[in-house]
């Protein structure tokens, strides 16, 4: 490579060529340092990308999506258990209202997914509950409706929400989840 650059500078004259060659010599002297620095910087960014993906649980979403696509019921149960465990972790907080609402949202999401799996394919939660109520095959439809209303009210930050109210909504969701059977067999 340096021979090609030397030949280019030779055609420009001695003054330019000598200045150009000294620039080339300086570049060749720091080339190993530039290569090492770029390698370290690349490794740093790759580690950062892998760490952020691991922290965001994105890999769970992707694997669950593919397993769902192939009809694996284990993926659905595993995803629902993960949501329920997140809800149980969030409800442990005695003072953080946002965590209570997050726990209620996870319960709502599990129940709505259970209704979808049962065949109630509507565009809104209210329509799915109405369809399930009309079918009359769920004993916990009133619990689902009450917990849904509590969650809808809790989303408004100005509404009164106590820790006991959030726990009560999760108990109702838990009864409905058991009846829907979306988390598979076993205790939860």
Topology:
Elements: H1 2-10, H2 14-56, H3 58-69, H4 73-91, H5 97-117, H6 125-135, H7 141-154, H8 163-180
Helix pairs in contact: 1-2, 3-4, 4-5, 5-7, 5-8, 7-8
User: Uncertain runs with pLDDT below 50, 5 residues or more?
Assistant: none
Instruction: Give the helix proportion (percent range).
Output: over 70%
Number of helices: 8
Share in β-strands? under 5%
**Largest sheet report:** none
Q: How much is the average pLDDT?
A: 81
Report how far apart the termini are: 67 Å
**Which word captures the global form?**
elongated
Q: Give the tally of β-strands.
A: 0
Pattern of helices and strands: HHHHHHHH
- How many domains make up the 3D coordinates? 2
Compute the gyration radius: what is it? 30 Å
Helix and strand content put the structural class at mainly alpha
Can you describe what's shown?
- It is elongated, with a radius of gyration of 30 Å.
- The longest helix has 43 residues, at 14-56.
- The model has no long low-confidence stretch (mean pLDDT 81).
- The protein is 78% helix and 0% strand.
- It is built from eight helices and no strands.
- It has helices at residues 2-10, 14-56, 58-69, 73-91, 97-117, 125-135, 141-154, 163-180.
- Helix 1 (2-10) packs antiparallel against helix 2 (14-56) and helix 5 (97-117) packs antiparallel against helix 7.
- By secondary structure, it is an all-alpha fold.
- The protein folds into two domains: 2-56; 58-180, no CATH class.
- The protein starts with a helix and ends in an 8-residue tail after the last helix.
